[in-house]
Amino acid sequence: MKKLIMVLALLIAAFGATGGLAEGQPVAIVVHPDVQVSDLTTSQLRRIFLADQQFWPDRSRIVLLVRAPKADDRNMVLDRIYQMSESEYSRYWIAKIFRAEIAAGPQIVFSSNMAQELVTAIPGSITFIPSSEIDSHIKVLSIDGLLPDQPGYALH
Amino acid sequence: MSCFIRYGARLAIAVVAIAVTATAFAQDTLGQRINTLIFGEIDYREREDEGNDGFVIGQGVAQFNMRLDDRLSVFTELTATARKDQSFDFSVERLFVRYDFSDNFKLSAGRYHTPLGYWNSAFHHGSWLQTSISRPETVKFGSNVVPIHFVGALLEGNIGDSDFGYKVGYGNGRSDKINAPGDVGDSNNSRAWMIAGHYRPPGRLGLHVGFSLYVDEIDREFEPGIDEQLFSAYLALEREAPEVVVEYTYANHESSLSDGNVSSIYGQVAYRLTGNADKFKPYLRAERLDVDDDDPLLGMLDLDYEGLIAGTRWDFSPSAVLKVEVRHEEFGNTGTRNSFWLQLAFVFNASSGNRLYGARAPEYRVALSR
User: Fold this and answer.
1) Residue ranges per structural domain of chain B
2) A126 and A136 in contact (C-beta within 8 Å)?
3) Which of B70, B158, B239 is nearest residue A88 as measured by Cβ atoms?
4) Three-class SS of residue B251?
């Protein structure tokens, strides 16, 4: 029995470490608490994650945090927001830097915990986290007026 | 062969040393960041009726994008290009300082890739970035048709919150050597100006359409005061299945003695294969360039061109590619020529341990220690 519990615990830990996203579980868009925005349209969200919009309305710079490859929430964001494959995504950022449209690509985060720590610490930052892993003090944005737990939310 | 190895090693050492030094310097300076990209290539060619075939050390490129603060950045691009006399040509391709007031207004000054048309800005020295080995003839390195570089000031940005953008430039224009910009002043004291607009909505196709207009006055030794107007329009699908680029360029040159036109169009189609073959992307490009014999700037240079190229790129690594290309081309009145090319091209992102999708989070340590 102990062995079974240990195996299950290891499986759960491994699942968590790779950013597993249960089916139907939404991904939340979260920002630094001082960001003066509470809702984005899907179009605005895409422009921000594509770095076509690099400043918040108060003219502070947006800092983009993106999960490292393999995480399920990253895969969802690549599919729904970027609408790119992994190789297209890589090429997109190299091209963006090459064209001097941005000074640097998105910052990589390696876990949901890291994403939460950074998004509360770095002014102007924005990232995405599975909604089930969000701490209560994190600022969650609504997309097209809907929060992650509401029907019709864009990142289910 | 020993020359090849010797100069190749020197090039590699020089580029890596510059990149590592600059990156280390930046990491020691809190609040400032540098993003370093290195591009390189090695080519092999076999051409009908030509000498100097075999292996060729292509261009080595080091780019440093330095963010000095939240709004101010400096972009530098240095290249090393092998020459026939066994030496290397080192040059500053781009160097400009930019201040971002907002997404709508970004003002910069320095030396750029002229934002005229698509290819010249989108790929330029990044061989790894461009699907094909060769650049279109109209925008090849050293092209006389399009001013490849521009020295001056540039205002650019988004138009409102839309997917439209603009660029307005004012600078020195072509120098006495018409395929080079005026790096140390405007040789005829007649500034060039340009405007460009584009539309790039988010979406699975990566649609990008745009136009640009460039106006200058050029003095040649025997023909001063040649007015130049260049117009370019393009449509690109920037994703990989399919990838499409169509670009049209029209130029009018007018002097007191004659006037003439230049027109050029190329279309390139590529498609990233799926399944087990997803590392391969075959491509095809057709191009035509016509220059009036009476054109006062370019008519004497016999620049007419027709070309058809076909090839495949194999992305055997996330940061390296092997390309194979065959070309059937006609240059001016010299008849048709076939050639075979191979290229090994790579990119290295020195700021992030070659993680192409973005830099690591350097703010992590700093932010959490607050």
Assistant:
1) 2-369
2) no
3) B239
4) strand
A111 CB near a chain B CB, below 8 Å? no
Phi, psi of B332 (to 5 degrees): 50, -130
Q: In this structure, how many other beta carbons lie within 10 angstroms of the beta carbon of residue A133?
A: 19
The pair of three-digit structure tokens given for residue B168, joined into one six-digit string: 């307005």
If pLDDT is split at 50, 70 and 90, which confidence band does B15 have? low
A137, with CB counted inside 10 A (0-12, 13-18, 19+), is exposed
Q: Which residues of B touch A54 (CB under 8 A)?
A: 100, 103
Establish whether the linkage from the previous residue to B147 is cis, with ω within 30° of 0: no
Which of the residues A48, A54, A97, A108 would you substitute to probe the B interface, choosing the one with the greatest number of B C-beta atoms within 10 Å? Answer: A97
Nearest beta carbon to residue A90 from set B66, B100, B318: B318
Tokens of B123: 């790929």
3-state secondary structure of B298: coil
Element (H, E) at B284: strand B280-291
d(C-alpha A33, C-alpha A143), whole Å: 17
Percent of chain A residues topping a pLDDT of 70: 85
Overall fold of domain B2-369: Porin (2.40.160)
Find out whether A154 and A51 touch, Cβ atoms under 8 Å: no
pLDDT for B184: 84
What is the spatial distance between Cα B99 and Cα B307, in angstroms, rounded to a whole number? Answer: 41
Residue from the list A89, A100, A108 with its beta carbon closest to the beta carbon of B360: A108
Q: State the DSSP H helix or E strand holding residue B38, giving kind and residue range, or none if neither.
A: strand B33-47
Q: What is the mean pLDDT of chain A?
A: 86
Q: Residue A63 corresponds to which tokens in the numbers above?
A: 């800092």
* B30 in A contact zone (CB under 8 Å): no
**Which among B67, B122, B363 has CB closest to A122?**
B363
One-character DSSP codes across B44-84:
EEEETT-SS-EEEE--EEEEEEEE-SSSEEEEEEEEEEE-T
Interface of A with B in 19-58 (CB under 8 A): 43-44, 46-47, 50, 52-55
CA A147 – CA A48 distance, rounded (Å): 18
Question: What are the structure tokens assigned to B352, written together?
Answer: 């992030």
| Structural tokens at position B172 | 């020195």
When the candidates are 3.40.50.2000, 1.10.1660.10, 1.10.287.1770, 3.40.190.10, the CATH number that belongs to A25-143 is 3.40.190.10
Segment B322-347 mean pLDDT = 94
- The answer to whether B357 contacts A91, with C-beta atoms less than 8 Å apart, is no
Which among B72, B71, B92 has a CA at the least distance from the CA of B81? Answer: B92
Residue boundaries of the structural domains of chain A: 25-143
Partner A contacted by B240 (CB < 8 A): yes
Q: What is the pLDDT of residues A85-107, one digit of tens each?
A: 888 898 899 999 999 998 888 98
B79 close contact with A: CB closer than 8 A: no
Where does the pLDDT of residue A15 fall: very low under 50, low under 70, confident under 90, or very high at 90 and above? very low
